[in-house]
Write a structure and sequence with these properties.
The chain is α+β, with helices and mostly antiparallel strands. The protein contains two helices and six strands, in the order ααββββββ. The strands form two sheets. Strands 3-4-5-6 form a four-stranded antiparallel beta sheet, covered by helices on one side. α1 packs across α2. The longest helix has 34 residues.
Length: 133
């Protein structure tokens, strides 16, 4: 898997989501941008879905074996913070997973670009990089 290509595709999806979030539903460009976003997401899944699902399966096996692996696109955050070329997320982002190691704490997995990585959000104040390209 070409991780640079995955990272670039992920950044393009995030940029399109940000662009779409700035528009009102009534904006004439909204439907067009939404369709472009769906096309980017579909292309991402087609090109990198299988490889990312294998990586996500390994992460799940190690950190949250009782949780099902979803399509990689599901692990994208709703909102990313961008500082230059560095992307980050808050602890509220990601897909809920069950982690015995962190029992009693809300845990979520999220896919983050630049550098391409998977973060486990633990509770309200802790993040752990559980996979990095």
């Amino acid at each position: 898997m070409d991780t640079k290509a995955v990272d670039k595709a992920l950044v393009a999806i995030i940029a399109k989501r940000i662009e779409l979030q700035k528009l009102d539903y009534n904006n004439p460009k909204y439907d067009e941008l939404e369709e472009e976003l769906h096309d980017l997401e579909d292309d991402f899944q087609d090109a990198y879905g299988d490889a990312l699902e294998d990586i996500l399966q390994d992460v799940h096996d190690e950190h949250c074996p009782d949780s099902d692996v979803l399509y990689p696109i599901a692990y994208l955050a709703k909102q990313y913070s961008i500082d230059g070329n560095n992307y980050s997320v808050t602890n509220t982002e990601g897909v809920f997973v069950e982690s015995e190691k962190h029992a009693g704490k809300e845990t979520k997995l999220v896919l983050v670009p630049s550098p391409l990585r998977i973060i486990l959000n633990i509770g309200k104040d802790r993040q752990e990089v559980v996979w990095k390209a």
